[in-house]
Design a protein that fits this description.
The chain is of the alpha/beta class and 343 residues long. It has a single domain, classed as Aldolase class I (TIM Barrel). The chain contains 14 helices and ten strands. The strands form three sheets. Strands 8-1-9-10 form a four-stranded mixed β-sheet, with helices on one face. The longest helix is centred in the middle third of the chain and has 18 residues. The chain is globular and about 50 Å long. It starts with a helix and ends with a strand.
């Protein structure tokens, strides 16, 4: 199974024409989603702090504690952001931040309880690196940390921090951050506790095609065991303002990787297009290369923006129009991909 997956992945990424790859991925998408609906969610990314000890070379967002641009939002500031998002139709927040050296587990628990009491909304929050960091600071296991976060109000976990699930690349770009096994273990633990998560990949970090296939095999294998991933989201590294001297990758490579991901991850129900990093035109084209979800309205986004990516934030009407123009039926969804309403 392992060698067969690797051979097939290499053939798709390195030997199959882009048009043929798109046709194969479109066939998988239509098999999984024959109704022709493309979903998206109305939400807001809230980055509670940009202070981070990880100092990843690919990140333009983090700051040290002494940096004049460093910040840590209060519960009240986060509450106001939630209320503003809800007034614009948001049904969830994506809550993430840096690996702050001074925040205890209690700080996160109190924040979640505050949100659920005064500004109730679905909280999709705290990526695997954050959970690993909280575990180290608190001296508790990953399992106990996730249990406590869920009891306080955490609803689901995003797939951030995966980058490329390959030890060689992680040593080069983020040597202080959790490794492949810990990332996978945290998601497997979350799944065992009943929390759904997403899986991501950031490519264009100097990886080989074979390492992309290994990343996809890790996701496929964990999904076989748990069924806990709701979606897979690949996007391209944005090099501006980072410490990695790499060039931006092409839209053609994005479509190739997206299509191969849809074909190989046939056990992950949804694949998301990234209009934030690719722009609306390529995101529309991605719907014919395996994607069945247009992502998020993203009423606020800071991490990719810090790396020089500045596509305009889009509202429900704009995304619905783009989906219709591509020949699909738009629908608003929740985090578990249930349909809220068709547009």
């Amino acid at each position: 199974m392992r060698n067969g997956f690797l051979r097939r992945g290499s053939d798709l990424l390195e030997s199959t024409s882009l048009h043929q790859l798109g046709a194969l991925a479109d066939r998988v998408r239509r098999w999984l989603h024959p109704e022709g609906i493309v979903t998206f969610i109305n939400d807001r990314n809230i980055n509670y702090s940009n202070i981070c000890i990880s100092r990843c070379r690919f990140c333009a967002f983090y700051r040290t504690q002494k940096d004049p641009q460093a910040y840590l939002l209060s519960s009240e500031e986060i509450g106001r952001k939630i209320d503003e998002a809800k007034s614009r139709g948001a049904v969830q927040i994506l809550l993430q931040g840096g690996l702050h050296p001074d925040l205890s587990l209690d700080w996160y628990l109190e924040l979640l309880r505050y949100i659920k009491r005064y500004h109730p909304i679905h909280v999709h929050g705290f990526s695997a690196p954050e959970i690993d960091h909280i575990s180290r600071v608190s001296g508790l296991s990953h399992e106990r940390v996730i249990e406590k976060l869920a009891e306080a109000g955490l609803d689901s976990i995003p797939g951030g921090g995966a980058e490329i699930l390959c030890a060689r690349i992680r040593r080069l770009i983020s040597p202080r951050k959790l490794g492949v096994r810990r990332w996978l273990r945290i998601h497997e633990t979350a799944h065992s506790l009943g929390l759904k998560t997403t899986a991501t990949m950031v490519y264009g970090l100097g990886e080989r095609m074979s390492e992309i296939v290994v990343h996809l095999r890790h996701i496929h294998s964990l999904q076989e065991r748990t069924g806990g991933f709701t979606a897979f989201i690949p996007w391209s590294f944005q090099p501006a303002n980072t410490r990695l001297p790499l060039e931006k990758t092409t839209p053609a490579l994005y479509l190739r990787i997206l299509a191969a991901s849809r074909i190989l991850l046939d056990n992950v129900p949804n694949v998301q297009a990234s209009w934030v990093t690719q722009g609306p035109d390529i995101a529309q084209l991605a719907l014919y290369f395996g994607a069945n979800d247009f992502g998020s309205t993203m009423l606020e986004e800071n991490v990719v923006r810090a790396a020089g990516c500045s596509f305009k934030v889009m509202d429900e009407k704009t995304i619905a129009r783009l989906i219709r123009q591509a020949g699909f039926r738009p629908a608003l969804r929740s985090q578990d991909y249930s349909i809220i309403r068709k547009l």
